[in-house]
Design a protein that fits this description.
There is one protein chain. This protein is an all-alpha fold. The chain folds into 2 domains: about 120 residues, no CATH class; about 70 residues, no CATH class. Helix content is about 55%, strand content about 5%. It has a two-stranded antiparallel sheet with strand order 1-2. α3 crosses α7, α4 crosses α5 and α8 packs antiparallel against α9. It is flat, with a radius of gyration of 20 Å.
Length: about 200
């Protein structure tokens, strides 16, 4: 059971209980504090939490979440694109999911922060690591997230017959180009090596 503050649950704690998201609180805390090495941003944690809520709602309605492209459906609902959101809502309604109720239970990154601080008394560790390595890790995590979102979008659109197939290969490769010599290289390589080196 989630901890409370003065008897009143935060929204995240309430939603965890309502959807029986066992272990979610611990996972959020570990990801935010970097217990396993890499830290996850509050915005990414909110997205992951909301996808878990959507998956639980689909399962409770008797659907098959893994086949339903949960990530792509959530992306469509939250992207602000009206056509995509409408298709996603209709698909969920066909699965007997109460879309309005589920969307009202989606949380913001501020709500996740409040939950972690107030209910779990979590705090970030002091950061004494290599600043270049931290930046590289952040960029790599964003590349991974972009790849996952893109793959999910392609799969969900293919399933809806909006594009011809789903097995496209997604490549996300951020490169930087030196203004002096014109050489290009992956951004992680540049940051770790401290620059292009052409002026040395």
């Amino acid at each position: 059971m989630s901890q409370t503050n003065g008897g009143r649950q935060t929204k995240v704690a309430r939603v965890i209980d309502d959807y029986d998201l066992t272990g979610m609180g611990s996972r959020l805390e570990a990801a935010w504090t970097g217990e396993s090495g890499d830290r996850t941003s509050l915005r990414d944690l909110a997205d992951e939490f909301n996808e878990a809520v959507l998956e639980a709602a689909i399962r409770d309605a008797g659907g098959a979440p893994l086949e339903f492209e949960v990530s792509g459906t959530y992306e469509a609902l939250s992207s602000g694109a009206e056509a995509g959101a409408t298709r996603a809502r209709r698909r969920l309604e066909r699965e007997d999911v109460d879309v309005d109720s589920v969307e009202s239970d989606f949380v913001t990154h501020q709500a996740v922060h409040t939950y972690l601080k107030r209910d779990r008394d979590a705090s970030l560790p002091s950061d004494n690591g290599d600043p270049r390595e931290r930046k590289v890790k952040s960029i790599e995590k964003l590349q991974g997230r972009l790849t996952a979102v893109t793959e999910s979008a392609v799969s969900s659109l293919a399933a809806a017959d909006e594009i011809d197939q789903s097995d496209y290969e997604v490549l996300v490769n951020v490169r930087v180009v030196c203004p002096d010599c014109g050489a290009g290289q992956p951004v992680g390589e540049l940051l770790r090596e401290g620059g292009c080196g052409c002026t040395n």
